[in-house]
Amino acid sequence: MKQTNHKPSESLALWFLYHTALGRMVLKVLVCPFVSQIAGAALDSKASAALIPWFRKKNGISMEGVIVPKGGFPSFNAFFCRKRENAGVSENAKLSSPCDAYLTCIPIKKNQIFDVKHTRFSLQDLLQDKKLAGEFTDGTALVFRLTPSHYHRYAYAADGEILSWRRIRGILHSVRPICTRQVPVYAQNAREYQVIETNELGKIVQMEIGAMMIGRISNERPVDRKSVRGKEKGRFEFGGSTIMLLLQKDCVSLRKEVMEAGRDGGELAVSYGEDLTE
Q1: What is the pLDDT of residues 73-106, one digit of tens each?
Q2: Are 198 and 226 contacting, i.e. CB atoms less than 8 angstroms apart?
Q3: CA pair distance 31, 79, nearest whole angstrom
Q4: Which of 97, 241, 271, 275 is catalytic?
Q5: Which of 100, 174, 271, 275 does the annotation list as catalytic?
Q6: Is 224 a catalytic residue?
Q7: What is the pTM (predicted TM-score) of this model?
Q8: Active site residue 100
């Protein structure tokens, strides 16, 4: 994929929800996990398959390489979680992009309240673990924002051993920029993360974050507790979603364009399996 800076747009519906009194009343209901569960059940239904042609056209989704079940996709969610024949992974990379996404790179400072697409939160709030957060002081956070048009399966970013796995329940907001300016989305949304001792890059955290009308993060847990770079790790169901990688200080040499992603207010387009290192 050619890498270009991307500046996301904002929708009228999201502006209504996050900027008006009536919208915020509606939002209190929409962000409850049970609402996402109801929406998820509807999108699993056979009738929801009728939405697929409209969704494909609206988001310009290519079907090249997509594995289509015999008889077609049985539901909208089945299409949204579609699997590709070959997602593509750089062979010699030490750290690769876990997904197709728009990337922002953020330095992590001690006790810093930092901003991810206009959302302010501390790393301790995000991880709910003060000791673990301290291990990434002066490191780097890579934020991968997926849109509805992206491939919503993702992979491990590096080879290593999974030390721990944690799921944090939360309320579910959209991860669109207009929403992240209003609430601490990444600290509130349901999320799941793994602490991985990599073979060459020290310790990393790989985190998946749910979003409004999605809620379901479906991860496979390897029995041998091994993370294999480029191996499918899991998938998001309907909605825009986010993956974060936390890297320790001086453990990873990132490409220049990756280090500069987000400095001008845009985001860098990256591909599943793409090499992020020098």
Answers
A1: 999 889 988 999 876 788 889 999 999 999 999 8
A2: no
A3: 24
A4: 241
A5: 100
A6: no
A7: 0.79
A8: yes
